[in-house]
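User:
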Amino acid sequence: MARSRAGIYALGALLAGTVALAPLPLGVITVSSAAIGFETPAIVDPIHTNGEPDIAVDPQGRVFNSGPTG
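Assistant: Predicted structure:
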């Protein structure tokens, strides 16, 4: 009894895995209409002009860091 139940569970798991990994129909695949493009950066917020975090070391070896707050 327990052996047949384990077989049924194994068969169900195998069937579920097969369905989950089946390839999608070709009609579902979409093609991107345009490639990714990059432009010249523009200032969006003239008050908060910080960009990415910045770490710098001056000639005396002091470390300075800055970045956006929020």
